[in-house]
Design goal:
Four Helix Bundle (Hemerythrin (Met), subunit A), mainly alpha
């Protein structure tokens, strides 16, 4: 039986080295707690905001579906709303919205033009987000 030596290498925690404890520029736990409370208080408003976003994304989808040409300009409008939904979902505890909107954003990153198949894939994502809400 060979006598192999084991060496454990711990990666550096670069984030920890950038955050100061105490003194100027340090993380202020009281301010952090206040910010978290503000976000929690806004959570009820999220359902109103996301309903508006879902109306916008549905309208943008309908424009894309009927568009002629490559559909890039129309798709950009859908991407912008999906990107907003992606960011807000996780902030307000709707992680599934973030996941679905992220996948929709990734779809746009892989496409150069938008035909019937791409429009259908977009519609599935939009419908899934509506179902979650």
């Amino acid at each position: 039986m060979a006598n192999d030596e084991l060496e454990i290498i711990n990666p550096p925690n670069t984030l920890k080295s950038k955050v100061r404890e105490g003194g100027p520029g340090a993380v202020d736990l009281e301010k952090l707690e206040r910010a978290e409370n503000v976000i929690a208080a806004m959570a009820d408003s999220y359902l109103e905001w996301v309903q508006e976003d879902l109306v916008k994304i549905e309208a943008a989808y309908n424009v894309l579906k009927d568009a002629t040409g490559d559909g890039n300009a129309e798709a950009e409008k859908i991407f912008q709303v999906a990107h907003d939904i992606k960011g807000q979902g996780g902030s307000f505890g709707y992680d599934l919205m973030t996941v679905i909107a992220n996948e929709l954003c990734r779809l746009f990153e892989r496409q150069d033009n938008y035909g019937a198949a791409e429009a259908q894939a977009i519609k599935v994502h939009v419908d899934a987000m509506k179902l979650v809400i």
